[in-house]
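2024-03-11 09:14:02 DEBUG pipeline.ingest accepted 1 chain
2024-03-11 09:14:02 DEBUG pipeline.ingest length=119
2024-03-11 09:14:03 DEBUG pipeline.predict start
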Amino acid sequence: MSFSLVVSDKEEYEGTVRKWVIVERQLKLIHDKTKELREMKCKLSDKISQYIEKNNIEEIETSEGKIKPVERKEYTPLTYGYLEKSLEKMISDKSKVQQIISLLKNNREMKVSKELILK
């Protein structure tokens, strides 16, 4: 969503700031509530999964649909530590490995963005 907003006078400026603060607070409340709900869902999921596994159940019918256990593979992040260990398996010269890691770190793309924060 893009807003083209030109503040022409002090009253409009103050109103814009007030609205921004209200929106920022609302977003924080939503974020906090979402975090709380995710934590609750995770705990409930663990309980349901234990029950399903213990009782050898394939799926649970609900009014909203079926709940089924599924396995999902997740890869760990590609970190500099992982890259270094992997390169050391291929390149015996540790100084070359360090040179490669330094090159990767120093030549990353950097994006600078401006934003407002409420402290």
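2024-03-11 09:14:41 DEBUG pipeline.report Residues 75-110 form one domain.
2024-03-11 09:14:41 DEBUG pipeline.predict end
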